[in-house]
Design a protein that fits this description.
Strand content: 15-25%
Distance between the termini: 32 Å
Helix content: 25-40%
Number of helices: 15
CATH superfamily of the largest domain: FAD/NAD(P)-binding domain
Number of domains: 3
Bound molecules: flavin-adenine dinucleotide, succinic acid
Low-confidence stretches: none
Mean pLDDT: 96
CATH class of the largest domain: Alpha Beta
Length: 531
């Protein structure tokens, strides 16, 4: 079955929805999304969006904080661009109806780790939910946008699907849409489009413990990699320092804004241990805090450290963090009186599909935006609350580029084939999928986590290679399903992370290897590129 539109958007988080709304006046838009529309990392964002919105702050401050958190691997041109455009993009969100928290008439600006000023625009501690609500309201009423829920993209359509002989050498790869599994009908549909926006978000579920919802299986990076796109900086996986201990899967996040509000990390002895590691204490950048917690846990043998807000005004805590307060209560913790047990968990992928300043990837007519992309903003460690900002800035830029260059697109070839089911059967071996998935998550957690070593990375690589071979074989002979699509992508992304981690022979930002526990600016102040 073929479905044609001018633009195909894969993903309905902040990146996909913002792009769709910006481009829809110039053509028809299909949005495909894995589950229900709201289910995305965006929907769970707590802290807020970083932007210079106060006269006591400056673009220079935000730029320097971003560069410093990113261990100076950030691309300065990208950082300057995103930071300068921030206020305009925030005002647009307000115009479409996002209700940010205010202090009187002014926006209430929170603080998070690594920020030298209060600049986090937020909607209490449910910022993502509020943004997603407003964007989905707008999308629902737009006549040019059609949303397909429960549609999992399998692969991007490129020259590879058109030509069967390997002899042909294509210098330039084009993207003309994607093959997508309609989960309810169990059929693969061919979505054809002149331009495709990849906005599939993160890859948290490559790891055993993550803050990400189940949709975050790295599909976009894996699909783009298979299609031949340039991928970079996959070793920089951000572990959020504070998730509620034993809160299930996904791990429940205790926003960094809680520390920005005055919360202090303590070990079992009650010591404010972060001061031993960094002068910014509990509000040091995330890579430093996560590593310090990891070290404390290894040193003491404890299972968690504590986040302490008991010294702060109880009513104010409840007012600022109603969602976190309620969730802690459900776990028997009254955070105004009790210490909160916390542990780190995988949170954000700083690497991804390489884009330029307009969101263009190395594949023609394929754009990427949001967490799936590597724009150069985050470098070796993302500054808190810079990702929602990046998504709104780049969705704007990609739409602007496409509007200005619409005559340059040569359209799509007439001979795009439908999905080929031949040689595949329904099998009963579904248990293999869940076993392999768990094994990937465990291997990545044990060997490719906060602290790495060459020996552990090699061990992880051997195991992931084996799983990849098994998955490849299974995929060839089995009818596609959501579980199999995700497993194939998880294995691919795990491999990309390990290869990038092995390649980087230094420690920078989120990548810490005990065998190279030093910065090497001479050789390694550059992206880890995989093509
Ligand atoms: P997402 O919002 O994750 O959307 C991805 C979309 O792609 C989803 O709709 C998904 O279903 C769809 N999708 C994925 N694969 C496929 C496929 N194969 N086929 C079809 N559809 C697919 N960042 C901040 O800046 N500030 C914060 O306060 C903040 N808090 C956070 C709190 C939590 C708990 C988490 C998990 C993240 C937080 N982040 C925060 C990070 C931020 O939320 C994400 O980086 C950002 O929302 C990503 O937006 P996105 O649109 O790129 O992806
Ligand atoms: C948080 O609220 O701590 C998450 C912020 C982020 O990931 O940027």
């Amino acid at each position: 079955m073929k479905l044609e539109s001018d633009f195909l958007v894969i993903g309905s988080g902040i990146a996909g929805l913002s792009f769709a709304l910006r481009i829809a006046d110039t053509g028809t838009v299909s949005i495909v999304t894995k589950k229900e529309t709201a289910e995305s990392n965006t929907n769970y964002a707590q802290g807020g969006i970083a932007s210079v919105m106060s006269s006591t702050d400056s673009f220079e401050n935000h730029i320097e904080d971003t560069m410093k958190a990113g261990a100076y691997l950030c691309h300065r041109d990208t950082v300057e661009h995103v930071v300068h455009d921030g206020p305009e993009r925030i005002n647009e969100l307000i115009e479409i109806g996002v209700q940010f928290t205010r202090s009187g008439k002014e926006l209430d600006l929170g603080k998070e780790g690594g920020h030298s000023k209060n600049r986090i625009v937020h909607a209490a501690d449910l910022t993502g939910k509020e943004i997603e609500r407003a964007l989905l309201d707008k999308v629902a009423s737009h006549p040019n946008i059609k949303v397909y829920e429960n549609h999992v993209t399998i692969d991007l359509i490129t020259e590879h699907h058109l030509f069967t002989t390997k002899k042909e050498n294509h210098d330039t790869i084009h993207c003309w849409g994607a093959y997508v599994l309609d989960i309810n009908k169990n059929v693969v549909k061919t979505f054809i489009a002149k331009n495709t926006m990849l906005a599939t978000g993160g890859a948290g579920h490559v790891y055993l413990h993550t803050t990400n919802p189940l949709i975050a299986t790295g599909d976009g990076v894996a699909m783009a990699y298979r299609a031949g796109a340039a991928i970079a900086n996959m070793e920089f996986i951000q572990f959020h320092p504070t998730t509620l201990f034993n809160s299930g899967s996904p791990s429940f996040l205790i926003s960094e804004a809680v520390r920005g509000f005055g919360g202090i990390l303590r070990n079992a002895q009650g010591e404010d241990f972060m001061l031993k590691y960094n002068p910014q204490g509990s509000l040091a950048p995330r890579d430093i805090v996560a590593r310090a917690i990891d070290n404390e846990l290894k040193r003491t043998g404890d299972e968690f450290v504590y986040l302490d807000v008991t010294h702060l005004h109880g009513e104010k805590i409840k007012e600022h963090f109603p969602n976190i307060y309620e969730r802690c209560l459900k776990h028997g913790i009254d955070m105004t009186k009790d210490l909160i047990p916390v542990v780190p968990a995988a949170h954000y992928s700083c690497g991804g599909v390489v884009t330029d300043l307009q969101g263009k990837t190395s594949i023609k007519n394929l754009f990427a935006c949001g967490e799936v992309s590597m724009t150069g903003l985050h470098g070796a460690n993302r500054l808190a609350s810079n990702s929602l900002l990046e998504a709104v800035v780049y969705s704007h830029d990609a739409a602007k580029y496409l509007k200005q260059n619409k005559d340059k697109n040569n359209g799509v070839p007439a001979n795009i084939p439908d999905w080929d089911y031949s040689g595949t059967v329904n099998t009963e071996e579904w248990v293999l999928i869940s076993h392999d998935r768990k094994e990937i998550q465990q291997v990545m957690w044990d060997y490719v986590g906060i602290v790495r070593s060459t020996h552990r990375l090699a061990r992880a690589q051997r195991r992931i290679n084996l799983i990849q071979e098994e998955v490849k074989d299974f995929y060839k002979r089995t009818k596609v399903s959501e579980g199999l699509i995700e497993l194939r992508n998880l294995a691919c992304v795990a491999d990309l992370i390990i290869r990038s981690a092995i390649a980087r022979k230094e420690s920078r930002g989120l990548h810490y290897n005990t065998d190279y526990n030093f910065l090497n600016d001479v050789e390694w102040l550059k992206d880890t590129l995989i093509t």
